[in-house]
């Protein structure tokens, strides 16, 4: 597994890449990709870090697992390539954006355009076996992505963290809220959203207001 990420991340995470757990994780992932169908493609495992450098991070959105269906996962949380049906959670994200700031939803679910504006779309686990949700959990990915979140929290200021659902809130529990904006709500999945825990959170307008207040360029959602 080639840790193919943008140079600024390599500098900030170099100690993490040298730890025994990460080396064990690399061995596990290589074995899984050799013996089974796994997602995303190897070249896309670290895509979130490739499209959004450490220095450019303005917003962090935390997901859990990559999509485990054919062609869906491409290394960005909640995102799917163009030509793939938009998943239900992302449909609800687009609905909230439209209700919040009036932006019409796009016809595809590819969020690379967000990543290129400084939105780190970070899944807690970066790989998965085909059709087996959670199959690569507790193998070391969560420890690595916890370190990513801590590094951003410790070494940057005025970053917006969007924590959707109980899992993301728990994962973001140690973010320093005295120097960052932490936005929380229910998860955008239909189960949560239809119970009233997602719609109306206004995270996207709040994020842009904060970016404006801190002299950062707003995100074109």
Structure description:
With 221 residues, the protein is an alpha/beta fold. Helix content is 39%, strand content 11%. The chain is built from nine helices and six strands. A four-stranded parallel sheet has the order 3-2-5-6. The protein has a two-stranded antiparallel sheet with strand order 1-4. Strand 5, helix 7 and strand 6 (181-185) form a beta-alpha-beta unit.
Features:
4-stranded parallel beta sheet, 221 residues, two-stranded antiparallel sheet, alpha/beta, single chain
- Tell me, briefly, the overall form: globular
Mean pLDDT comes to 96
Topology order in helix (H) and strand (E) letters: HHEHEHHEEHEHEHH
| Structural class designation | alpha/beta
Helix amount, in percent? 25-40%
- DSSP E strands, number: 6
Radius of gyration from CA coordinates: 17 Å
User: Uncertain spans, ≥5 residues at pLDDT below 50?
Assistant: none
Q: Strands of the largest sheet, in order across it?
A: 3-2-5-6
By DSSP (H or I, 4+ residues per run), the number of helices equals 9
Intertermini distance: 32 Å
Beta-strand residue fraction: 5-15%
Biggest sheet descriptor: 4 strands, parallel
Write the layout of secondary structure elements.
Blueprint: H1 7-17, H2 20-35, E1 38-39, H3 47-51, E2 59-63, H4 88-101, H5 112-115, E3 119-123, E4 128-129, H6 141-155, E5 160-164, H7 165-171, E6 181-185, H8 190-193, H9 203-213
In summary, what is this structure?
It is built from nine helices and six strands; from the N terminus they run H-H-E-H-E-H-H-E-E-H-E-H-E-H-H.
